[in-house]
Task: inverse folding
């Protein structure tokens, strides 16, 4: 049965690929979850995923597609908005500078001197110390570092948009430096991954709004993506060297084991989903989990680090895996229920389609909302982006940055 459902999802993905300029959000959403389930089946070959998981992914893909289908109208793209390259570059470099405050200030308030980073051995020790402090909830934070984190994410968001318009390729690398420093000093891969996602999605949004299409992928782009994956793989190796202090065959085996953890979210969520559907009574929170960042700020609910503290343990390929990452679906289901989840993603698709029909009038808003929803898709394997106030603030500042950089209004 699962095989039939997988092919159904593949067919839907192919159809949306042929119409990706029209149904852009549902195409990325469906393709993203198709790859997720495919790689999970590969990494966990002896784990039997429930039919409920496949049904959820297919129905949510179909729901977001229907929302986009109803909301979108084919209109002529007559967007005339122009941006100042100088202003965009200035704002990006400023974001990079402020972004560096986050890792530097984090080290200082945790009693680590910047001079210790000049030695590779000391860097490994700092990486391990900060990682242990984070896992044991002993990592000190401040308002300054929390504000600076927003700019760690804003820099690649602006860089991707600027590069798409003005071919500023060096800016792409520069914009990732703060998140790379976070990775090297704190062993926090999530920040670096999000920075890459934000760089990519702002480029997507620019082409969609101002060119009416997705960016074309050439051989050099594919090679670049493969190189990027290798770089990330070596960074994962580095993080293990930082913890263990050596590099041998055992470390490489552990790295491959760790890479498989990046797909442990689906078995984890699958088990939670089966248990949820077996219950007769469900209590819903009506948006608190999905929009935890806003709920926490308004004092409606208090957000804990990681949000979910229950770990799921399972065995696959003779190894034990555990995770407390339950994908964005758990957020939606706990808020709106199983069937309400499809209504929620339908609304997201409808908003995307409706704004796509009016993007020639609201080009700045379209770029920001498209980027936000694309990022929602790319981050959905972990959580809801609206569960974190830093992500919400990033897109507010992104809009303000584009508004400041705009040369003149469209006519």
Result:
């Amino acid at each position: 049965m699962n095989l039939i459902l997988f092919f159904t999802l593949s067919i839907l993905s192919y159809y949306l690929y042929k119409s990706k300029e029209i149904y852009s959000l549902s195409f990325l959403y469906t393709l993203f979850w198709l790859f997720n389930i495919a790689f999970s089946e590969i990494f966990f070959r002896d784990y039997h995923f429930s039919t409920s998981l496949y049904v959820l992914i297919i129905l949510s893909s179909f729901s977001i597609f229907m929302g986009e289908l109803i909301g979108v109208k084919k209109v002529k793209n007559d967007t005339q908005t122009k941006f100042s390259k100088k202003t965009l570059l200035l704002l990006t470099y400023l974001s990079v500078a402020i972004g560096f405050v986050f890792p530097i200030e984090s080290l200082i308030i945790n009693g680590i001197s910047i001079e210790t980073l000049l030695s590779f051995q000391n860097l490994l020790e700092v990486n391990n110390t900060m990682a242990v402090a984070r896992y044991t909830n002993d990592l000190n934070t401040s308002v300054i570092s929390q504000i600076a984190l927003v700019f760690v994410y804003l820099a690649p968001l602006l860089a991707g948009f600027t590069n798409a318009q003005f071919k500023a390729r060096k800016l792409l690398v520069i914009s990732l430096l703060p998140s790379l420093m976070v990775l090297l000093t704190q062993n926090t891969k999530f920040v670096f991954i999000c920075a890459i996602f934000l760089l990519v999605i702002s480029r997507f949004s620019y082409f969609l709004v101002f060119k009416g299409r997705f960016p074309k992928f050439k051989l050099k782009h594919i090679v670049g993506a493969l190189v990027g994956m290798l770089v990330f793989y070596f960074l994962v190796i580095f993080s293990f060297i930082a913890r263990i202090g050596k590099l041998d065959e055992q470390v490489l085996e552990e790295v491959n084991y760790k890479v498989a953890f990046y797909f442990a979210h689906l078995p984890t969520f699958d088990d939670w989903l089966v248990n949820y559907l077996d219950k007769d009574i469900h209590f819903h929170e009506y948006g608190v989990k999905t929009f935890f960042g806003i709920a926490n700020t308004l004092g409606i609910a208090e957000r804990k680090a990681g949000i979910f503290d229950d770990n799921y343990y399972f065995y696959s390929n003779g190894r034990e895996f555990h995770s407390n990452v339950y994908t964005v679906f758990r957020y939606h289901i706990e808020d709106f229920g199983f069937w309400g989840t499809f209504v929620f993603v339908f609304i997201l698709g409808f908003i995307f389609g409706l704004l796509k029909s009016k993007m020639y009038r609201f080009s700045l808003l379209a770029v920001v909302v498209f980027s936000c929803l694309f990022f929602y898709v790319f981050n959905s394997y972990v959580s809801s982006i609206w569960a974190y106030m830093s992500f919400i603030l990033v897109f507010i500042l992104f809009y303000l940055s584009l508004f400041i950089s705009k040369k003149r209004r469209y006519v």
Q: What stands out?
A: The chain has a mean pLDDT of 84. The CA atoms of residues 64 and 345 lie 5 Å apart.
